[in-house]
Amino acid sequence: MARTNLLFCYLLGIITLFAACDKDDNKYEELIRLADLKLQEAIKLAENQPCKPIEEWRIDTLSYRYVPVHPSFEKEYNTLIKEYRDLSEQASKVYKPGKNDPLVYNTSPVSLPPHFGLRCKDGKMIVASSLDLELTEINQLMDELFPQVRDFFKDVPCTDVSKWNILTIRKDCEFVSIAVTDTPDYRIFGQKAERLNHLNYAKVQKSGMNCPTENPNHPKGIICKDGKASIQY
After folding, report:
1. 23 or 116, which is more confident?
2. Where are the domains of the chain?
3. The 3-state secondary structure of the chain, one letter per residue
4. Are 165 and 227 in contact (CB under 8 A)?
5. pLDDT at residue 25, as a whole number
6. Checking phi first, is residue 133 left (phi over 0); if not, alpha (psi -120 to 50) or beta?
7. Phi first, then psi: what are they for 44, rounded to 5°?
8. pLDDT of 53-71, one tens digit each?
């Protein structure tokens, strides 16, 4: 009899455990669903706004996109974003990974491409990507940015060639190799180079250029010459 009761308690414990896990899974899925609804509601609110003076707007950065925000609806927008984040936080607390799921609930944002400010497009305010720009503006921005990227490390002394690397950037269909090294402001260089890359991609797409995909003139390496990094071909 005692053995039967022990077996019954053991089976009851297993059933309770599985029921609790299933309950947690359902709660997690429901919280994620509700959080996404709040996020999409906030984005829809921001996407359906008529154009107003650009200086009145700000750009909000979400986990996977940029959103234009105006004071006329900012309070409602902020409330929705807070609800979204609160629900996401609750979901992370009840998250129980399955066999093939990551062990940690991932809330890290994706790496967003650079934006190019606010624009009025088709009567709505948008946060512009490079592809939203007109070709004349792309050319103007590239003319300003390309020499900044190309010459960013021009005045950095070269004393140890092992600390330098070669980075190839594009200008129209041209491959341009530059010598780069780690400096305290390297992040600024990276941001400029990424913006240039997106602008060049948009220019090639909009102008219909048929550019080669491989560099026909690969650099062989770098040497330090007269205190400056020099690329050898």
Report:
1. 116
2. 2-98+108-128, 135-232
3. CHHHHHHHHHHHHHHHHHHHHHHHHHHHHHHHHHHHHHHHHHHHHHHCCECCCHHHCEEEECCCCEEEECCCCHHHHHHHHHHHHHHHHHHHHHCCCCCCCCCCCCCCCCCCCCCCCEEEECCEEEECCHHHCCHHHHHHHHHHHHHHHHCCCCCCCCCCHHHEEEEEEEECCEEEEEEEECCCCHHHHHHHHHHHHHHHHHHHHHHCCCCCCCCCCCCCEEEEECCEEEEEC
4. no
5. 60
6. beta
7. -60, -40
8. 999 999 999 988 999 999 9
Q: How many CB atoms are closer than 10 A to CB 223?
A: 14
Token match 């190839």: residue? 168
Beta-sheet pairing, 228-232 with 221-225: antiparallel
127 neighbors 55 (Cβ within 8 angstroms) = no
Distance between CA atoms of residues 156 and 134, nearest Å? 35
Burial of 94 (0-12, 13-18, 19+ CB in 10 A): middle
177: left (phi over 0), alpha (psi -120 to 50) or beta: beta
- The C-alpha angle 135, 126, 187, rounded to 5 degrees, equals 75
When pLDDT is cut at 50, 70 and 90, the band that residue 163 belongs to is very high
**Number of Cα atoms under 13 Å in the Cβ half of residue 33:** 6
pLDDT tens-digit map of 95-133: 777 655 665 556 565 689 999 999 999 999 999 999 999
**Which residues have C-beta within 8 Å of that of residue 112, sequence separation ≥ 6?**
61, 64, 65, 66
Range from 119-128, 167-176, 211-220 carrying the lowest mean pLDDT = 211-220
Query: Using 50, 70 and 90 to split pLDDT, how confident is the model at 92?
Result: confident
